[in-house]
């Protein structure tokens, strides 16, 4: 069994004790995929640090460069956890920390933000040859919240999304010095014919197999996700009732206010 911790809320940041307790009670757990915007508890929280030592772990780390802005009011700036990220990179196999530039908020500074984040991650982890992206979905309650905050998603058609993706890919290749830099597209099938873009598998059985010698690669696809999702089956241990205090304006998981 693979735990997903969690698509619904930032468990590592706000509910580390919950994760530790859940893991301790499980008899079938084999591996964990974590989702977070703040990796410091993997170093600072003794119980959570032990979990990643004891189980195969992949960390989906979202850094958009918007931390502390109106878009992500209570997300830390990525420079605030640089040292923790550097230490975490030494504890996990290369490729176990997956960077998410997600959602892609297209503004006048998108490429500047992207460059700053990739350069910092490269400094912390040694190299960055891949990133996961998706463009925001205009859920009604999110659109309403943005409007009340004086914000709005830019109006992008699929042609513009392809253009932005191609620009990010070119930038990623240039920063990494690697022409094989890869963008993992999360549920954006119209991007998959761009050379260098592949379908995202955030809960990736093959990656676990490659990094940890597990046998998850032949697991069934997760039928509980969107049809265009490439993830294998996992059990999400989070709940929408576990309030995430990052208060990201674009988050569909936040309750109505």
List the helices and strands and how they pair.
Layout: E1 2-5, H1 11-14, H2 16-25, E2 31-36, H3 41-44, H4 46-54, E3 57-62, H5 82-91, E4 97-101, H6 110-125, E5 130-133, H7 140-148, H8 158-176, E6 182-185, E7 197-199, H9 205-212, E8 235-236
Parallel strand pairs: 1-2, 1-8, 2-3, 3-4, 4-5, 5-6, 6-7
Provide a quick synopsis of the model.
With 257 residues, the chain is of the alpha/beta class. It contains nine helices and eight strands.
Structure, described:
The protein has 257 residues and is α/β, with parallel strands linked by helices. It has one domain (2-236): TIM Barrel (Alpha-Beta Barrel). Helix content is 35%, strand content 13%. It is built from 9 helices and 8 strands. It has an 8-stranded parallel β-sheet. Helix 5 links the parallel strand 3 and strand 4. The radius of gyration is 17 Å and the shape is globular. The termini are far apart. The mean pLDDT is 96.
Largest sheet: 8 strands, parallel
Number of strands: 8
Total individual domains = 1
How are helices and strands ordered from N to C? EHHEHHEHEHEHHEEHE
Strand order of the largest sheet: 7-6-5-4-3-2-1-8
| CATH C-level name | Alpha Beta
| CATH architecture title | Alpha-Beta Barrel
Helix content: 25-40%
Which structural class should the secondary elements be placed in? alpha/beta
List low-confidence stretches: none
| Average residue pLDDT | 96
Q: Which shape, going by the Cα principal axes?
A: globular
Quick tags:
9 helices; 8-stranded parallel β-sheet
């Amino acid at each position: 069994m693979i735990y997903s911790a969690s698509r619904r809320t930032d468990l590592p940041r706000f509910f580390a004790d919950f994760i530790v307790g859940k893991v301790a009670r499980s008899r079938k757990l084999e591996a964990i995929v974590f989702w977070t915007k703040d990796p410091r508890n993997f170093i600072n929280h003794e119980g959570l640090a032990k979990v990643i030592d004891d189980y195969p772990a992949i960390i989906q780390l979202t850094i958009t460069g918007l931390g502390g802005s109106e878009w992500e009011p209570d997300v830390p700036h990525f420079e605030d956890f640089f040292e923790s990220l550097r230490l975490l990179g030494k504890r996990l196999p290369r490729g176990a920390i997956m960077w998410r530039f997600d959602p892609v908020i297209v503004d006048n500074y998108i490429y500047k933000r992207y460059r700053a984040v990739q350069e910092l991650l490269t400094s912390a982890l040694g190299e960055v040859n891949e990133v996961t992206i998706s463009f925001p979905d205009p859920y009604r309650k999110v659109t309403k919240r943005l409007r009340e905050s004086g914000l709005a998603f830019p109006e992008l058609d699929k042609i513009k999304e392809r253009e932005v993706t191609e620009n990010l890919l070119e930038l990623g290749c240039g920063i990494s010095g690697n022409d094989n830099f890869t963008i993992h597209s999360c549920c954006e099938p119209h991007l998959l014919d761009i050379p260098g873009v592949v379908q995202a598998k955030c809960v990736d059985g093959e990656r676990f197999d490659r990094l940890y010698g597990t046998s998850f690669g032949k697991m069934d696809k997760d039928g509980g996700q969107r049809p265009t999702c490439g993830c294998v089956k996992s059990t999400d241990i989070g709940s929408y009732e576990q309030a995430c205090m990052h208060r990201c304006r674009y988050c569909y998981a936040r309750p109505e206010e």
